[in-house]
Amino acid sequence: MRETADITRAQQSLDGVSWNILGQVYRPKQMTDDSFCWHAIFPVETFVPPHLHTNQDEYIYVLDGRIDLLLDGEQTAATTGDLVRLPRGIPHAFFNNSGQPVQALFWAAPTGKLVDLYRRIHNVANPKEVADISREHDVIFLPPISAAA
Questions:
Q1: Measured distance CA(115)–CA(117) in Å, rounded
Q2: 42 partner at 20 to 30 Å CA-CA among 3, 78, 81, 92?
Q3: 147: pLDDT strictly greater than 90
Q4: Using an 8 Å Cβ cutoff, are 127 and 75 in contact?
């Protein structure tokens, strides 16, 4: 994948794509072999369980709201304007316990198998199935914890 000079508009995504990932809406904004960026909407009480990326560094820029996080075993929160840095191999999880929808811009570098993973788990509601598919794409889910981190 090669970068092109262009603009992905505020309410748009690449090729009109939108993925439902564990109840959240992910819209790809930029995609090359070197990096992948997506806009995420976290409805109230949605979360991504503890996991780690074996081959990517991941970043979250909170556009609006508060995301509760578990970062390498520590509970914390990020709010509007905060940037969360998630180096590869570091366990992390995200939770929307705020009572309001949250919007964030995510990106990962390098892209690796992440785009293929999101295509595969789009609309998959069974967390165990998501975890099994994710392992094939270098994302490892860890033992479950409560959604109320």
A1: 5
A2: 3
A3: no
A4: no
